[in-house]
Design goal:
By secondary structure, the chain is an alpha+beta fold. It is built from 15 helices and 18 strands. The strands form 7 sheets. A 4-stranded antiparallel β-sheet has the order 4-3-6-7, with no helix packed on it. β1 and β2 form a beta hairpin. α9 runs parallel beside α11 and α12 packs across α13. The longest helix has 20 residues. It is elongated. The N terminus is likely disordered.
């Protein structure tokens, strides 16, 4: 838990440093005259050998410098500002001390700051005529005697989720010049785009965070996660680009990159959940922007409807489960928070398209995509019959949500049929020696796909409170945590949650998904206390 506070502080400082000011507020009325230092630089040189050091006393900083050699030098102004608070403490006034100065003199000053924080300390040389030099500044946190930090008393599942998320932030977040998620740990250099994840991986990190926002409610770590909203939002918004007249999330934060409808819908789902937790309207605004992108550009009559998979750089002609089904879920969520009928109408339209064109009637699961008919592209043609867990989990969640909204029994009946087949296909019987239990464990496979599928099981549980499927998810994650799947770096070997596999690198896409599962289980733990 101390580790989390440490990592959080480091990344908070990283984010705030991006907002650092070019200069500190000065004590005199001359600030506005030389805000950029241009005039002053022509008249008086700045101090040299400027440094700031800690001392052995709390809230003290030792400032050292050498005055410029100038017979007109009159004074040196030492200022400080609490930069860790500059985004939230609008009324905070910086401290300022003016000292007499002699040309070329070596100086030091023991500065006392009001409390423990990160400070930017600056020095400005001032001439007798009032001309000011270019600013020299350093940032430093003063010494503070180590205090005994009480152990957090978190519920068991939340404690696991919090520990895991702490590790993810420490190993993956803010490792480049951007405040966003890196693709791999460890990073060995040479990766594309400084090693930062594409938007799919960024979305997985965001999903983990938004799930933790909900899981941490009413706990000792609620404020820690709430304080991360700004940096997490900034990180994902790097990827929100206007390209060819359309604003949406691109694979990478620059124009001309590939752009996918399914990448966007996953972020849209996180945004509406984030809004539900915080009531911060900027998140709802982003969810609605994603929705408009999906409906205005993703849906057309090719294949008789449905949502395309990719927009840029070449628009797909096929219609995909991974884009159409979560659009139905997003429509339900937006209807629930806004009450706008158009969201529900489109959710039903997307859901019905899935049933009519992409469902296998023999087992109620869903195929990957359908291609245009060779004779008439506005009719569905050949179907790509691969089945992936997330492509069936999203229709499951949509059916559950449509039942909640409409109370029509057909949706619940369909949900039960889909859930049973998902469980049959993507879970397997297992005996855990670590838990001394026999249960159905999530089968080896793509952890992110399986987590998206499990969203459907959690939605179904919210209707019937039957723990049949939830118990298997919970036991899977407990076994993974207690077994050889759990590594010394506090990550999980995600390809096989039974353990017994060896890995030397871990991807944020999969790790973020597993944090989400722990967080969703932590929410149920809180609700059932």
């Amino acid at each position: 838990n101390k580790q989390f506070i440490y990592y959080f502080h480091i990344y908070e400082l990283f984010v705030y440093s991006l907002f650092s000011l070019l200069m500190l507020s000065a004590c005199s009325d001359a600030d506005d005259v030389v805000a950029d230092g241009a005039l002053a630089g022509d008249n008086i040189s700045p101090v040299s050998s400027f440094s700031v050091e800690t001392t052995n006393a709390d809230n003290e900083l030792l400032v050292k410098w050498v005055n410029p050699i100038n017979r007109d030098l009159d004074m040196v102004e030492i200022s400080y500002r609490d930069v860790s608070e500059e985004l939230t403490r609008a009324s905070f006034s910086p401290g300022c001390i003016t000292l007499p100065a002699q040309s070329g003199e070596e100086c030091e000053y023991l500065l006392t700051v009001p409390y423990f924080s990160l400070y930017e300390v600056s020095a400005v040389a001032i001439s007798k005529s009032g001309q000011r030099s270019v600013i020299e500044s350093k940032r430093l946190t003063p010494y503070r005697e180590e205090e005994e930090v009480p152990e957090l008393q978190l519920p068991a599942m939340l404690n696991r989720a919090h520990s895991y998320m702490t590790t993810l932030i420490g190993l993956y977040f803010g490792k480049s010049s951007r405040s966003c998620w890196r693709t791999w740990y460890p990073y060995n250099g040479g990766a594309y785009w400084d090693g930062d994840a594409l938007v799919w991986g960024q979305g997985s990190g965001l999903s983990a965070f938004v799930a933790m926002r909900e899981a941490s409610k009413q706990s000792e770590v609620e404020n820690l996660y709430a304080a991360m909203d700004e940096m997490m939002f900034k990180g994902i918004q790097y990827f929100f680009q206007n390209d060819q007249g359309k604003s949406a999330y691109s694979c990478y934060p620059a124009r001309g990159n590939e752009r996918y409808y399914d990448d966007n819908v996953w972020i849209g789902l996180d945004m509406v959940d984030w809004y539900t937790e915080t009531e911060d309207r900027r998140f709802l605004t982003q969810a609605e922007a994603v929705w408009n992108y999906l409906i205005d550009y993703g849906w057309d009559e090719t294949c008789g409807g449905g949502i395309h998979w990719r927009e840029l750089n070449s628009h797909t002609t096929s219609k995909h489960s991974c884009s159409t089904a979560p659009t139905a879920v997003l429509g339900c969520k937006l209807y629930q928070v806004t009450g706008r009928q158009t969201y529900l109408d489109w959710a039903i339209k997307c859901y019905n398209y899935m049933l009519d064109n992409l469902q296998d009637p023999s087992d109620h699961l869903f195929y990957d995509n359908v291609r245009p008919n060779a004779s008439d592209p506005n009719l569905p043609g050949d179907v790509e019959k691969n089945k992936y867990s997330y492509n069936s989990g999203q229709p499951l969640q949509a059916a559950c949500m449509l039942y909640k909204i409409t109370n029509e029994q057909k949706y619940l009946n369909e949900a039960y049929a889909i859930a049973a087949s998902c469980h049959d296909k993507w879970f397997m019987p297992y005996r855990s020696k670590d838990l001394n239990l026999t249960f159905n464990i999530l089968a080896p496979g793509h952890a992110w796909f399986n987590t998206i599928m499990c969203r459907g099981f959690f939605e179904l549980y919210s209707i019937d409170n039957d723990r049949k499927y939830i118990d298997d998810i919970e036991k899977t994650m407990l076994h993974a945590w207690e077994s050889s799947c759990h590594q010394s770096n506090n990550l999980l070997n995600d390809d096989d949650l039974r353990g017994g596999t060896s890995k030397n690198s871990w991807e944020i896409l999969q790790q973020g998904a597993l944090v989400e599962l722990f967080a969703r289980l932590a929410v149920l733990e809180r609700e059932n206390r």
